[in-house]
Amino acid sequence: MRYEVDFLVVGSGIAGLSFALKVAPYGHVVILTKGAADEGSTRYAQGGIAAVMYDSDSFDKHIHDTLVAGDGICNREVVEMTIREAPDRIRELVQYGVDFDLDGQRDRFDLHREGGHSEFRILHHKDNTGEEIERALLEAARRHPNIEIKERQFAIDIITQHHLGQRVTKHTPGIECYGVYALDCDTNRIDTYLARITLLATGGMGNVYSTTTTPILSTGDGVAMVHRARGVLADLEFTQFHPTSLYNPAERPAFLITEAMRGAGAVLKDRDGHEFMQKYDPRLSLAPRDIVARAIDNEMKLSGKDYLYLDARGIGKKHLIEGFPTIYAKCLSIGIDITRDMIPIRPAMHYQCGGIKVDRNGESSIRNLYAAGECSCTGLHGGNRLASNSLLEAVVYAHNAAQHALSTYQQIAFTTHRQVPDWNADGMVLNEEMVLITQTKKELQEIMWNYVGIVRSDLRLQRAFDRLNLIFRETEDLYNRSVLTEPLSELRNLIACAYLIIKMARARRQNVGLHYSLDLV
Ligand code: FAD
Ligand code: SIN
What we know:
alpha/beta, FAD/NAD(P)-binding domain, Flavocytochrome C3, Chain A, domain 1, 3 domains, seven-stranded mixed sheet, 13 helices
């Protein structure tokens, strides 16, 4: 099937939905989403969204905290713009129906604090903020007559001049996006979506690693698509590991224990029940994430243990049960009463700071292609993202991208688009055994966890690169012979992301933010 739409959005998390709602009054919007519409990292966000809402805090402090967490390599202009825009975007979320918790007097937002923040400035809905945001945005999008949400539609590749038979390299000037090819996961048909404007909002790539807090659909599809289309990517060496995921080895994704718990007074302890963060940073358990995750990793390696503890008992039973109901119930379901027991934790891949390089308007290096949310790289996070700045970045850049797209979309005609051929699946008949795909994915995830994790070295990166090469060749061979399926596409995308992470990690010859190599100490 062939479709022509004004605005094509790939992804139905906070970034995709926010953009869709803003452009919908001006044209037909199609949102493609590979799972159920509400599935993605957004709905699992716990802590909340950072913004300066009252005079007790200041933009300057939030800017300073973001720059410090980013370890000196954030884009300062982007940081200033994002943080100053935050209150307007928060008010819009409230208008869409997001129910942020209010304080005791119910006349102000109740604010939490997380690692790296010098003030209480995290707006939240109990400990399931993301679920609340996703609910409100999705309901608003479903109500809008111009928005069509198509579930189980897997975007495979963005369409450029390459699909018109032209040679496209990363040096080709004026690469243009005409839309995407997408696999209908129910019929296995590959459709052609032609669009004036395309926005990638495909989220993160946590599944490159064996332990991650991100849902199984976070496979870096948007980044891999732009890589194949020869677009510009940046900062992928900055993979963020959250210090405290619940240690429950059989569970994937790993369940998160929000940093807001440390903001409320929980402390990290070793297996003997002793605090250890004083050895690493004067901010103790509330130091920025890169420092805390490295400290935990080091303590685990020194002791040979595969988890440590978060002790939340000091927070008090009432506050724990009322303020963190999701975590309380989850832990209880596996026999841990957090009001009485310490919580076993270990770090897990959580967020990708790098991605599709975009300018202040959310525009990528490819014309008419925008990116927002976790798949993008705006310059806000630098070497390490400050907690709760991700949801914020997503709404700010969805807004900016929408404003910019609205100023250009009417000049984009479908003339060239209509020359785009349909996907050619000739000669591909083999349906390979699933075990080849699942086993390769596991191998990849283990390689990345062991060699390209929290602590790296030249030798580890070289090993990872060599092993990845073999996996890459085997998988491309499979791809060239097989009918295209979602698992195969995801595997190719994960391999592309792993390759990019390793390549950028090898090129970064200085320890900064989340990139830490023993050879650069
Ligand atoms: P997502 O919400 O991940 O959505 C991606 C969408 O893209 C999905 O709809 C998916 O189906 C779709 N998609 C992907 N690939 C394709 C494809 N090929 N074809 C079609 N559709 C596709 N950040 C904060 O700021 N505060 C927090 O408190 C916080 N807590 C977090 C807790 C957890 C457990 C996790 C995992 C992350 C947390 N983060 C938090 C990070 C934040 O939630 C994410 O960065 C953010 O939600 C990403 O939003 P997004 O719209 O970019 O992507
Ligand atoms: C958390 O709640 O600890 C996650 C916050 C974030 O990822 O920004």
